[in-house]
Every structure is written in structure tokens, then in C-alpha cells.
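Intended use. Records like the one below are meant for learning the mapping from a protein sequence to its folded structure. Do not use them to infer anything beyond what is encoded.
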Amino acid sequence: MTDKLTIAIEELYATFAVYPLKSTMDGCPCCVSNADKEIIHSKQLRALDGDDLSRYAFKAMTTWGDTDDFKHYLPRILELLATTDFIVDTFVVLGKLTYGNWRSWLANEQTAIETFVYAWWGHLISSKTYFDREAFIEINKLTNNIDKLLQLWAISFDDSSFANYVELVHDYYYDLTGKRKDFRELNETDINKLLNWISMNAATLEPGFFYFENSDKALAEKVSTTLYIFERT
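Structure written out for the chain above:
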């Protein structure tokens, strides 16, 4: 985990610590059992794991608890999303922020969330070995700032950012320039910005091939195919 992400997570806890755990939380009796309620009250916030919080993350604010309850659990939910294989999908978790109208929250709360999602995105690009399309789309929907996401994506052979770039182009370039099924949630302006950014960084492909030719033959082969994609379009 990057230092920026670690700091951002700690800032979430500090910011939302003003929302205490309530002794009881209202929940739809058809959707939330007493056992469900007991689980999320059974441990300290930071000790709750994905199994403990997955059901609440799905039900928060719609059929279980209010916005202040959600704010209490939010730091741990976001930490689990960023640092574990959280069973709850990214679109569900970030969608809860939209549902809770987070842009109307206190300025420091909005800042803490923005700082977290950008730090998380930087971590995904530099550390993960695959391009997380869902995270890219959902963070862009949440922040409406694709320029920032692309700015944070600095291509380097020393981390996973180049491999992520190759995977984006290899797996999705035809979609981006064609029917856009996989990127249907991006508007025309953002699609064009993404395509321009891809083209601007295409010059890294050939040197990247030679850089990884011997150390990572699978990546080098994918780079070769990606170069062919550009030659045909």
C-alpha cells in the first residue's frame, strides 16, 4: 500500500470520527435481522472485516440506518475496498456516496473522500497487475474529473503503470473507438480525453517491449499485439 493511501485512510478515520456508533440502528425488518445488527456492533470499527460489513454496505441508508450511521462505518468500508478483496463491488460502495449526496456534506468530509479515491487510484495503477476498469469508471463518475485520473497515471517501467496502460489498450481500445459497450458510462468528452491520453503515451510501447522482452515475456507479447492494434487503426 502506498504512503499516500495509508495517509488518506487515516484522514478518513480522523474526519468521520465525529459520528459515533449508535447503540441501535433502524433497519427494515424484512431485510435486516437482529443477527445482522449484532454483527456490526460486535467489534471495534477497525476490527470489522469484509464479512462483518458486506451486508451493511449493501443496505446502508436504503433499508438500514441513516447517513450519519453510514459516515461512522465509511472509513472502514473504504479501507476494505482499497486494501482487501472486498466482496462488495466498487460501484455499490461508491454508489452509496452518491446516494447519500456526499457533495452536500461538510467540506472537510468531501476533501477526505476525494483525497482517498485519488490515492486509491494511484495505488491501483502503480501496484496492481491488472487494469481495474470498474474502479476507473466509478471513481470518474464519483469525482467527474477524468483529467485528474489521467494526470495521476504516470507511465513507468518501474511499477505496474505501464502494464496497466498496455492492458487498457490491448483489451479495450477497439471498444473505445467502436461501440463502447465496456465504457458506455463515459461521456463523449471523457472518451476523447482518454483516447488522446492513450495516443500521447503510445510512444512508450516500443521501448517497453524491449525493456520487458527478456524479463516478462507475457507482457512483451501483449505489448507487441498492442502495437499491432495501433498500426491497424
